[in-house]
């Protein structure tokens, strides 16, 4: 029986490799691969432009090899999840105040 | 239409809150809540003992408040995902060597 949290982690890995394998280093995202992944896989990034991609790449690319490896990508997703969590927390606290 | 990667991030948030809300601070995991989450949600931790929980808590609890907040939990999941990724990468490289 698959466990939701483990499935979620597997989706993180499979989504990364779906795009990283397209060109160049099979295990790293180029700028173009990162742009395509964000455009198609993160709703809020569906119309992201190249300037934003360069800023995100600059933040994520800790080892400055001009590509995003899985560790850098996982840190990015942790930050996105924190944004989701803040939204969830605010919603819960508003509900509690209404009572 | 739900997007797999966003659903995965939502599962990370909902799984955390499923256990954090049980006792004490609703938005943080106590040791007992962390043990229950790992035991039920991570297959490799189904028989984890208290000594291991204390070690994991010691690593995750960056602000030393004796609880795990969502940021600390997200960093933990990023590390687990990296383990999944290493397994996936090794598998791919073995397949390539067979060809």
Automatic annotation (TrEMBL), chains A, B:
Coiled coil regions, renumbered to chain: none
GO molecular function, one term: calcium ion binding
UniProt source species: Chelonoidis abingdonii (Abingdon island giant tortoise)
Ranges that cross the membrane: none
Domain of life: Eukaryota
Protein name as catalogued: Protein S100
Domain spans labelled EF-hand: 48-83
KW Oxidoreductase (keyword) present: no
Nucleotide-binding recorded as keyword: no
InterPro entries tied to this protein: EF-hand-dom_pair, EF_Hand_1_Ca_BS, EF_hand_dom, S100/CaBP7/8-like_CS, S100_Ca-bd_sub
Pfam families: S_100
Function: Calcium-binding protein that plays a role in various cellular processes including motility, angiogenesis, cell differentiation, apoptosis, and autophagy. Increases cell motility and invasiveness by interacting with non-muscle myosin heavy chain (NMMHC) IIA/MYH9. Mechanistically, promotes filament depolymerization and increases the amount of soluble myosin-IIA, resulting in the formation of stable protrusions facilitating chemotaxis. Also modulates the pro-apoptotic function of TP53 by binding to its C-terminal transactivation domain within the nucleus and reducing its protein levels.
Keywords: Calcium, Metal-binding
